[in-house]
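Sequence, structure tokens quoted for completeness.
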Amino acid sequence: MVLVLLLCAILIISMVLVISITISTIKISIRNLELTNIDKDKLKYSLEISLILFKKIRWFSINLDETKIKRIMKKINLQNIAIKELEKDLSIQNLKEITKIRPQITFLKLQLNVGVGDVIITSYITSLICTIISILLTLTVESKNLRNVSYKINPLYNNGNIYDIKLSSNIEIKIINLLNSLYKIFKSKRNTEKNKVKCNAIN
């Protein structure tokens, strides 16, 4: 009897956990990112990844900095991932599914100083970056969060290629959207593989 109750309790807890994860939102907070090649190359930032339930209850959170992330990347050996193979697997349909994940920027504070040595090219690049950021923000920022968004792109008319980036941002992704897109990509890939097998069998 005790064993049955224990198994039921484990099953209920597992179901609650799975449901909680599925209906939660991933919140990625980038804090005080600094990336520059002025004086010397520099990269500094901290990252917080949280799971938010009903947009209010934070029930999981982990903090990482650039040192911890480098250790993780080293352990899982990311440098050996076959990028070309991943590019082959990505189809236009898969890219469409990725866009359906619909990440939302709820906070953004960006300052970018950039220069490429040529005054005219620097001006063009600055305008292009501003245009790209504006387009991305229209797709990823809801009207209620517009007051939390600010960015400034400054051209640097100096010799050489120079960049200086300061960024803080919050990005939210609904796990249900993420799982749905991943499932459709996986399903599409399996169907493609089945079709290849059929074609090879016919030949």
